[in-house]
Amino acid sequence: MATRSNAEDIFKCVNNDLEKVRERMAQIADSERDFPELSGMLCYILSGGKFIRPALVIMSSKFSSSSDEPIISMAIATELLHMATLVHDDAIDKADKRHGHPTVNSQWGLEKAILLGDYLFSVAGTLTASTGSLRVVRLFTNTLKAISRGELKQSFAAFQLDKSYSDYLERIVQKTSSLFVMATESGSVLSQTPEEMVQALHDYGYNMGIAYQIVDDILDFTGTEEELGKPTGSDLSQGTITLPAMMLLERYPKNNPIKLAFQGYEIADNLRKATEMIISSGIIDECYHIADSYAQKASKNLDKLPDNIYKSALLELTRFVVQRKE
Amino acid sequence: MATRSNAEDIFKCVNNDLEKVRERMAQIADSERDFPELSGMLCYILSGGKFIRPALVIMSSKFSSSSDEPIISMAIATELLHMATLVHDDAIDKADKRHGHPTVNSQWGLEKAILLGDYLFSVAGTLTASTGSLRVVRLFTNTLKAISRGELKQSFAAFQLDKSYSDYLERIVQKTSSLFVMATESGSVLSQTPEEMVQALHDYGYNMGIAYQIVDDILDFTGTEEELGKPTGSDLSQGTITLPAMMLLERYPKNNPIKLAFQGYEIADNLRKATEMIISSGIIDECYHIADSYAQKASKNLDKLPDNIYKSALLELTRFVVQRKE
């Protein structure tokens, strides 16, 4: 296995473009300077982030003659849509921290968090429309639909133990893959990439999104609070059954600590026990194996693309998503 | 003054089109039948409503050769965007009832209300994109931006007594007029109406929106709980200073019951006293006078349109918005 890489190294090949993305995101906050409270909120959330999704838009645009401006706009739109959904997610979960920083809802309250999320949707939509591509606009609205639908599915499935692996897969495809697909597809469509390659990048985004989310769901059990920037075991305590929990339920159908916790018996103790069992049972390895199989599918999807530094970076990213710790 | 009319009578001239809107809205709920919980929520909120905004889209499309399908889609998109913002508003205000029916948040909880709002944004956006007009897509995203920005302004201004009439006007233009403008402008743009008439209908929507919101703010003080379908005096109790309250603050700068309530003194008593003073002081008449002046501006905007049954209906609507009781 290659030496462990980080996202920053992988994205070096698109650093100039990412710099433009950062500059223009700062301008978005600045454009609201006559409304200082909003400008302050925007400054707070628009700084930072790993920028995986904007980088995906940009890298996906490099297999054809790309026109700069719409690509940068779309890279920003993708990040803003992502942020809007995180702001609403945190508001819903009443989460205090994300990546170690206080969430918008903990800093400004629920009301402002809901409205800031709506505002970010609108700015993302405006940037998407500015690309002049109706196909990309449709991709954008369909992505928002998939994400909110996936989150609704998750919300209605909370504390329910009868969900299948295919329910789980459908949910993570909607809430996570859809945005990866929007990134890779919009980047390639806006640069007039031949349709066969657009499809390949679409599929890459789809499989990468699944791998990414499975690893996210693993890290929720195995990560430290410091690495995650939020408490370990958040998913289970909110009633969200992810892949590792699903496997534990399948292996130990009787007296399963998750079942007991959801029935209200010694909740904290049983949830801790569930996490310990998941870690000691080999389930984590199995989940990583599944995540890795999707990452490999993603790298296979790239076969149809010509070799260049961007393809190498996209390949490297398939390894990174499985190895990452945060 | 003409006999009091109701919205249904005024919209008779576009009844066939509104019927299509209703049918297609029912289909939206039905399209999610493989996700019964979501389908149930959609059924719940997509039935009912005065349909003022869809009617505005349709009536505004009748001054030129209209192409049916995009107009109906846009009429639905406008209503869904309106509903999405109401669902989020009610979630923010923790409102129990709207138009006499339990709100989404009181029926399904805050989490589902936030996500349903997001879902409705996406369906509205998809319908807007289906019109094939990038201009209308931009209008849509700018409208969402204006609404969320106006709501954020209102939220940050809560319990603040130093706001001016122009702050109030800016806020209601953003949160209410913007959607009326989206309705009239999109209807006329999609039917290839000459630009001068598009502008006239834009201005009509702008002024109608202001009149509509001022009357809304009046009714919050003068309406009965039965008429409003929610408690009287909701605005003040949430710290929102609307036109009538602003006038009371200006007339009685000393020992004003609103000031006292916001400082925490005998809140319920002082808020009731404020409402009584607003009603007995002639402020309500003055507010109606202002609302009426905007309604008259709106009817004046129609001078540039040819006479027909749709123009008559739009004129009638300017009287209705000022006379309505709910």
Commentary on this structure:
- 2 copies of one chain form a homodimer.
- Chain A has 326 residues and is mainly alpha-helical.
- The first copy, chain A, is 74% helix and 1% strand.
- The first copy, chain A, has 17 helices and 2 strands.
- In chain A, strand 1 and strand 2 form a beta hairpin.
- Chains A and B meet through helix 5, helix 7 and helix 8 of A and helix 5, helix 7 and helix 8 of B.
Topology:
2 copies of one chain form a homodimer.
Chain A: H1 7-10, H2 15-30, H3 36-46, H4 52-60, H5 68-93, E1 97-98, E2 101-102, H6 104-108, H7 110-130, H8 134-156, H9 165-190, H10 195-222, H11 225-228, H12 234-237, H13 243-251, H14 257-262, H15 267-280, H16 283-301, H17 309-323
Antiparallel strand pairs in A: 1-2
Helix pairs in contact in A: 2-3, 2-5, 4-5, 4-9, 5-7, 5-8, 5-9, 8-9, 9-10, 10-16, 10-17, 13-15, 16-17
Précis, in short:
Chain A has 17 helices and two strands. Chain A is mainly α. Chain A has a two-stranded antiparallel sheet with strand order 1-2.
List keywords for this structure.
Farnesyl Diphosphate Synthase, mainly alpha, globular, homodimer, 326 residues
Percent helix of chain A: over 70%
User: Of all protein chain pairs, which has the greatest interface, and how many residues does each chain bring to it?
Assistant: A-B, 41 and 41 residues
Structural class of chain A: mainly alpha
Distance between the termini of chain A: 19 Å
The CATH architecture of chain A would be Orthogonal Bundle
Helix and strand run of chain A: HHHHHEEHHHHHHHHHHHH
Rg of chain A, Cα atoms, Å: 20 Å
Beta-strand segment tally of chain A = 2
> How many domains make up the coordinates of chain A?
1
- Percent strand of chain A: under 5%
Largest sheet of chain A: 2 strands, antiparallel
Under CATH, the topology of chain A can be stated as Farnesyl Diphosphate Synthase
CATH class of chain A: Mainly Alpha
Low-confidence stretches of chain A: none
Q: Oligomerization state of this entry?
A: homodimer
Q: Helical element count of chain A?
A: 17
CATH level-4 homologous superfamily of chain A: Farnesyl Diphosphate Synthase
Note the overall shape of chain A: globular
Average pLDDT of chain A, rounded to a whole number, is 93
